């Protein structure tokens, strides 16, 4: 059912758990800046301390061992390693911290999957234009090479950039994530383009300079819902679902896995809307330069973050404004038969993951797939005996098993989101995704395993014993 070397993991991200935002010469990130302004995050909360994993790493390691994980996905804080974003000044305290984390994991027979960028750009680089600047790709490549050289002798699974869609849209169009920009219809496409350029440069650097000795694998983590037409017999809804998928999954997967360029349906929709509104500049969706490293083929596996599914319908009168919503001219709808867990956007649809995995197999030439994030949120009163989340993980892993066994999808690993309750971006600490509860009212930030953590540990133990037998 599951391959003998299947990765059973859980994930975290540096800003969401580490704290120590000024400790040991760490530089500020865009999330430090964003959270320190009033009215941007639930309760004006921030990640200054978070789970304090910078000081309590050993506690996190105990949690990892209790679950019996084979893999742990973490991200590196770019600003902790390189405070001004450049390799001109290396913070050795940051290097020591991540060396310890990686060495401790390996000593416990846990393989690290390391993400280079999980939303927390050094503020010094934002001050130079951030992800809107063409030069950011060169800065990222230098940072990536520094990490490959420093940690790559022990790290064999790398993610360059986590969820470029979320960073581009929520951070540069909607303004609800750092850096909090609201520049609809233009900035998000520019940011997404530069993220793909940065990823491609880093992949090629790894491929030519580090892969021969280190023999690792590199990809980028693409988030996508499963999307299907609201009315399966309606041509307009079918087309709307295709456009919506092109503007989310296709935006980043198509250049890397299919053609080296954006989906034609995406480019034509953007250009048509631009023409309709009298936009006279170059296409708002940039083109890749032949003078730079090719984007096509720059993924050694498909890293998928999946949380939910949506029905899609064609929209009515198109808004006469420049924005991504108008460009794709399609609207998402919740199916009332799908239960909602905690936050309004998260419908519980485990079978959607199986359908999405099959789509990835058929569309992107049957790549090896790691499910790098998947989770179930909890809000309101604390429920340590979280039976709903326990059932969710059982149902979801069963769907993954069917994707492998019945659909022939080459799934290599499954990572829950997340190991710990943590700082959930604009939701602060009001939303809990952890397999372990963190008591943020306790100065010691004590960790306690949820029922879902115990159940996930049982699932891992069961399949590991089957594999060894």
TrEMBL record:
GO terms for biological process: carbohydrate metabolic process; glycosylceramide catabolic process. Pfam families: Glyco_hydro_1 (PF00232). Coiled coil: none annotated. The keyword Hydrolase applies. One of its GO terms (cellular component) is cytosol. One of its GO terms (molecular function) is beta-galactosidase activity. It comes from the Eukaryota. Gene3D superfamilies: Glycosidases (3.20.20.80). The keyword Transferase does not apply. The active site is at residue 373. Belongs to the glycosyl hydrolase 1 family. This is Cytosolic beta-glucosidase. It comes from Scomber scombrus.
């Amino acid at each position: 059912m599951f391959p003998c070397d299947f990765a059973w993991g859980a994930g975290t991200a540096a800003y969401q758990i580490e704290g120590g935002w000024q400790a040991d010469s760490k530089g500020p990130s865009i999330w430090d800046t964003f959270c320190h302004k009033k009215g941007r995050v639930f309760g004006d909360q921030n990640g200054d301390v978070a789970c304090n994993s910078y000081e309590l790493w050993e506690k996190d390691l105990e949690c990892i061992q209790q679950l019996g994980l084979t893999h742990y996905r973490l991200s590196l804080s770019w600003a902790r390693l390189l405070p001004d974003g450049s390799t001109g000044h290396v913070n050795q305290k940051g290097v020591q911290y991540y060396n310890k984390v990686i060495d401790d994991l390996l000593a416990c027979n846990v393989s690290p999957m390391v993400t280079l960028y999980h939303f927390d750009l050094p503020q010094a680089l934002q001050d130079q234009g951030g992800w809107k600047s063409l030069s950011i790709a060169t800065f990222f490549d230098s940072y990536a090479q520094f990490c490959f050289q420093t940690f790559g002798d022990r790290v064999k699974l790398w993610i360059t950039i986590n969820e470029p869609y979320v960073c581009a849209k929520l951070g540069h169009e909607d303004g609800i994530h750092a850096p909090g920009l609201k520049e609809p219809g233009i900035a998000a496409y520019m940011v997404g383009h530069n993220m793909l350029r940065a990823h491609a440069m880093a992949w090629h650097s790894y491929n030519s300079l580090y892969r021969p000795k280190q023999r690792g694998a590199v990809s980028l983590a693409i988030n996508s819902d499963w999307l299907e037409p609201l009315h399966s017999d309606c041509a307009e809804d079918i087309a709307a679902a295709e456009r919506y998928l092109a503007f989310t999954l296709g935006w980043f997967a198509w250049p890397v896995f299919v053609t080296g360029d954006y989906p034609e349906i995406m480019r034509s929709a953007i250009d048509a809307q631009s023409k309709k509104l009298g936009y006279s500049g170059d296409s708002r969706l940039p083109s890749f330069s032949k003078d730079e490293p090719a984007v096509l083929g720059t993924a050694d596996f498909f890293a998928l973050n999946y949380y939910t599914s949506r029905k899609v319908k064609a929209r009515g009168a198109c808004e006469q404004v420049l924005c991504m919503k108008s460009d794709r001219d399609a609207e998402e709808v919740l199916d009332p038969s799908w239960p909602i867990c905690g936050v309004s956007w998260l419908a519980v649809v485990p079978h959607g993951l199986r359908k999405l995995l099959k789509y990835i197999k058929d569309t992107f030439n049957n790549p090896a797939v790691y499910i790098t994030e998947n989770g179930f949120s909890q809000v309101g009163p604390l429920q340590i005996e979280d039976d709903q989340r326990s059932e969710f993980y059982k149902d979801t892993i069963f769907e993954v098993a069917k994707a492998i066994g019945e659909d022939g999808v080459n799934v290599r690993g499954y990572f829950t989101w997340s190991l710990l309750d943590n700082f959930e971006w604009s939701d602060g600490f009001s939303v809990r995704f952890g397999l372990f509860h963190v008591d943020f009212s306790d100065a010691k930030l004590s960790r306690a395993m949820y029922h879902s953590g115990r159940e996930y540990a049982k699932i891992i133990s069961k399949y590991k014993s089957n594999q060894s037998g």
